[in-house]
Amino acid sequence: DQQVKQNSPSLSVQEGRISILNCDYTNSMFDYFLWYKKYPAEGPTFLISISSIKDKNEDGRFTVFLNKSAKHLSLHIVPSQPGDSAVYFCAASVIGPGGGADGLTFGKGTHLIIQP
Amino acid sequence: GAGVSQSPSNKVTEKGKDVELRCDPISGHTALYWYRQSLGQGLEFLIYFQGNSAPDKSGLPSDRFSAERTGGSVSTLTIQRTQQEDSAVYLCASSLVRGGAKNIQYFGAGTRLSVL
């Protein structure tokens, strides 16, 4: 039972264009979402996050959008650069009233390829 | 060190042997997490520690898996009587605090375990 789904295993985008990576979740208790980027033989690197009280968070070239009613979030990268080629993981957690957020639930990842 | 350090980076073992994987979190981080990434899969949460509190072991796949954290810092994940399905990359992460809206976990490069 996958609670976080990334339905596109790979995505190819031309350099300079916008990359849009999508993520869907099923657990309505999730209230904090994160995107991680992973290069081969390295651990995931935190990119950007969003709390469920927001619908958009922006950091430089990266913007995350959250649609709670659709249980959908997306990561936009604009403009896309060759160094953005990597696997991108969507992750979710439950903060809860006690403030606890334990293990993250990850999607399977999307391999983004930026073509020159 | 500046980041999460894991050792060894690669481990090849024979089926039935025990293995120990080590994680040294970022200095000052109180929360430590172990994940597993099998081929073609997302990261699977295994266990987390908060300071010196008893860990949440609910994510461990079997009783052959155990983990400890000494002195609230370094952690060891032990797999007894390894099986071929244990082959995966084992990732450790740490965060400054457990929970809250800033539960950003920082990952090590992982230990690639191959069980022959």
Task: Write up this protein.
The complex is a heterodimer of chains A (116) and B (116). Chain A is an all-beta fold. Chain A has one domain: Immunoglobulin-like (Sandwich). Chain A is built from no helices and 11 strands. Chain A is globular, with a radius of gyration of 14 Å. The mean pLDDT of chain A is 92. With 116 residues, chain B is mainly β. Chain B has a single domain, classed as Immunoglobulin-like. The mean pLDDT of chain B is 89. The interface between A and B is medium-sized, with 30 and 28 residues.
Quick structural overview:
The complex is a heterodimer of chains A (116) and B (116). Chain A is mainly beta and 116 residues long.
Descriptive keywords:
heterodimer, A: 116 residues, mainly beta, Immunoglobulin-like, 6-stranded mixed beta sheet, 5-stranded antiparallel beta sheet, 11 strands, 0% helix, globular, B: 116 residues, 4-stranded antiparallel beta sheet, 10 strands, 46% strand
Task: Show the helix and strand layout.
The complex is a heterodimer of chains A (about 120) and B (about 120).
Chain A: E1 4-5, E2 10-14, E3 19-25, E4 32-38, E5 45-51, E6 56-59, E7 62-67, E8 72-77, E9 86-93, E10 105-106, E11 110-115
Parallel strand pairs in A: 2-11
Antiparallel strand pairs in A: 1-3, 3-8, 4-5, 4-9, 6-7, 7-8, 9-10, 9-11
Chain B: E1 5-7, E2 10-13, E3 19-24, E4 31-37, E5 43-50, E6 65-69, E7 75-79, E8 88-95, E9 106-107, E10 111-115
Parallel strand pairs in B: 2-10
Antiparallel strand pairs in B: 1-3, 3-7, 4-5, 4-8, 6-7, 8-9, 8-10
Corresponding CATH architecture of chain A: Sandwich
Which bin fits the share of residues in helices of chain B?
under 10%
Kindly report the greatest chain-chain contact and the residue count on each side. Answer: A-B, 30 and 28 residues
Structural class designation of chain B:
mainly beta
Structural class of chain A: mainly beta
Largest sheet entry of chain B: 6 strands, mixed
